[in-house]
Amino acid sequence: MKIRQHFNLGFALLLIAIMTLVVGCGTTPTPTTPAPQTTETPKPANPNLILATTTSTQDSGLLDVLIPAFEKKTGYKVKTVAVGTGAALAMGEKGDADVLLVHAPASEKKLVDNKTAINYQLVMHNDFIIVGPAADPAKVKETKTVVDAFKNIAASSSIFVSRGDDSGTDKMEKALWTKANVKPSADKYQATGQGMGQTLTVTSEKEGYTLTDRATFLATQKNLKLEIVLQGEASLLNIYHVMQVNPEKFPKVNADGAKAFVDYMTSPDTQTLIGTFGKDKYGQALFFPDAGKKMEDLGK
Amino acid sequence: MEMIWKGIQAAIHLLLTGDPEVVEITLLTLKISCSGTLISLLIGIPFGTLLALKPFPGRRFVLSIVNTGMGLPPVVVGLWVSIFLWRSGPFGFLNIIYTPTAIVIAQAIIASPIIAALTCAALQQTDPKLRLQIRALGTTRPQYIWLLLSEIRFSLLAAIIAGFGAIVSEIGASMAVGGNIKGQTRVLTTATVLEVSKGNFDIAIALSIILCLLAYGATLCLTLLQQKQQGGS
Predict the structure, then answer these.
(1) For chain A, what are the domain ranges?
(2) Structure pTM?
(3) Rounded distance, CA B210 to CA B27, Å?
(4) Which fold is adopted by the domain A48-125+238-294?
(5) Do A22 and B198 touch (CB under 8 A)?
(6) What is the ipTM of this complex?
(7) H-helix or E-strand spanning residue B185
(8) pLDDT at B20 over 60
(9) In angstroms, rounded to a whole number, what is the distance separating the alpha carbons of residues A248 and A119?
């Protein structure tokens, strides 16, 4: 009899426990996102679009402005996966993304050449800058070129913080070290393996130097004890391209959606939006629209 | 110091004003974590029971694997689930990568070994005399198992708490299979990382406080339930 009672009590309470969980989930009110004016938004056959892009476009807040406007205009639902350029290009190479927005022209060329990427369009640029502590122990401010700046840093006792994540910025930085033909000693060259925002925080804490895109630096500057120590050289341009992943190579790719996104990014309205983004908050634009221009003409 | 204070202020502000984005992220986190826990219960409890009560060749080996699974790193689960769910992977046709469903699957894989191992350990710890006594009552097999499970219900609730805790706090899997997509798969842990990388430390602190409150609230409910039983019996 005692066991029998035990059984009932246990049964009832376990049931309640599970019910609480189930009901707890079931009654969760679905978030009431304000319904966009669906009256004019078209309904594409396959609305899911995967955009592989870089952390810099997300960390700077640009995508928060561009993506909702694109979704409202075309009816596509964009899944933005913000990773390093290396990872974004790899997603394109496997057909795991529909459209790419990245900034490493040298690596992108490979995808264009082997027909993985089609409809390759220039979108915008900003520039890379070298930032460091205000005291500038490596005297980078006195230099005029990246080569001299990197030589000074390598010769000084200051550390250099690298992304080390195969992102567009990382690729650029590695190329610049090769160009400068110097290498800082291993203990002074530290790789974070993280995004630009995080890397800037680490650089600031360690009072080191790093190469960053201007957009992320301006967006996160308020928490950093860093200053721009070198800017303005033509080789420091950070050029963004948008491209479709080739549907002939990967049949599962959402070709219509990808084309719509490329068209949207290069349309005059979006280009104006890009050109004005950040002016109200930082007093200067974070990106410069370049649709229709040639890469060789930039920075002239 | 000023940043910590500003973070706490921002947290209180976000909590009181019910910022729609934060509310959405919080509800999504709760929904995903609850679903993940529930599925891991449905897998873990029967499996743990089987391991404890049914002798079969290689049982100890399987048990050692399940026990190791208690420490399964979420980032490893995230990587493998993504490899399988990507379009280029074997289950790519399901089209569930970067959806809440994908996160629930990964989280269920993380928590199931925890629930199974703790269920198994609790069952094996029951008094052999009690087992004999229950059998002597002429119970059928399902009745026997049910009685034993109700005997270890405190341990089962502890297992649920452990499973939920592992799920709600993980980030590696949510980031990899969910993609931290705004309004779709952005949960409290991934949102915190994003705000840190954006340099918005006050919002990040606010989100971390909300996450702790959520974890505490859920665990408190389960603990009260557990201790109420203790008092009632």
Answers:
(1) 48-125+238-294, 127-236
(2) 0.77
(3) 11
(4) D-Maltodextrin-Binding Protein; domain 2 (3.40.190)
(5) no
(6) 0.70
(7) none
(8) yes
(9) 13
SS (H, E, C) A256-268: HHHHHHHHHHHCH
Residue count of chain B: 233
Residue contact A16–B225, C-beta within 8 A: yes
| Mean pLDDT along residues A262-283 | 93
Interface test with A, best of B147, B198, B233 (most A CBs within 10 A): B198
| Inter-chain residue contact A252 with B24, CB threshold 8 Å | no
Shortest alpha-carbon distance between residue A187 and chain B (Å): 25
- B38 contacts A21? CB cut-off 8 A: yes
Pick B2-232's CATH classification: 1.10.1660.10, 1.10.3720.10, 1.10.10.10, 3.20.20.140.
Answer: 1.10.3720.10
Structure tokens at A69: 């406007």
Asked if the Cβ–Cβ distance from A198 to B197 is below 8 Å, we say yes
Mean pLDDT of chain A: 85
Residues A62, A90 contacting (CB under 8 angstroms): no
Could you tell me the residue ranges of all domains in chain B?
Answer: 2-232
Nearest-angstrom CA–CA distance, A131 and A199: 12
Report the topology of domain A127-236: D-Maltodextrin-Binding Protein; domain 2 (3.40.190)
Q: Kindly list the residues from chain A whose CB atom is less than 8 angstroms away from the CB atom of residue B179.
A: 79-81
Q: Could you say which of A11, A24, A252 has the minimum Cβ distance to residue B150?
A: A11
Asked if B199 lies within 8 A of A194 by C-beta distance, the reply is no
Q: How sure is the predictor about A85, in pLDDT bands with cuts at 50, 70 and 90?
A: confident
The answer to whether the beta carbons of residues A262 and A66 sit under 8 Å apart is no
Find the radius of gyration of the CA atoms of chain B. Answer: 21
From CA A159, how far away is CA A206, in angstroms rounded? 8
Please report, as a single letter, which amino acid is at residue B125: Q
Q: What is the dihedral of CA B32, B38, B39, B42, to 10 degrees?
A: 180
Name A145's Cβ contacts closer than 8 Å, sequence gap at least 6: A233
User: Is there a common fold for A48-125+238-294 and A127-236?
Assistant: yes
* CA-based nearest distance B181→chain A, Å: 6
